[in-house]
Amino acid sequence: MEAKKTTALTVFTLSSLITLFLIPVSIQAQQSRGVILAGYNHQPPVRTSGSGFVTVTYQKDTLRVKGEFSDLKGFYRGAYIMVGEKGEAGNMLFRLKVEANEERTGGVIKARDNLFPLSDIQKNLLKKGDLFINISSTQHTRGELRGQIPPLG
Known about the structure:
By secondary structure, the protein is of the alpha+beta class.
């Protein structure tokens, strides 16, 4: 009887180990970074009293953005995830959805409205730190606030 229990336990253990090694498991931890939005991050720097902060989260090939900004010199015009190295002008990749405040000089970026599945090329840009957040206003159409997204992935 004892031999049967030992054999059964051995078979169970071996089959469990084989299953663990043969079935591909994709485990990806969530990574989050804070990004300061400021005029001095632009090149050349933008003189503004505006500021903001967003949290960028990368998980399961999806980028999520949440945060807020305030005190723009001009009226809020748009918010974007852009492609570009630090100090370099870039191209728009995604448009962020923002709930602007009543004065239209600030707003809230809600995570549930700002989820972006990434392609392999976009994931590589994120991994290299070549993405940034840009907030534009009527007074600074190329961007009043900017924050480089640190490398993730």
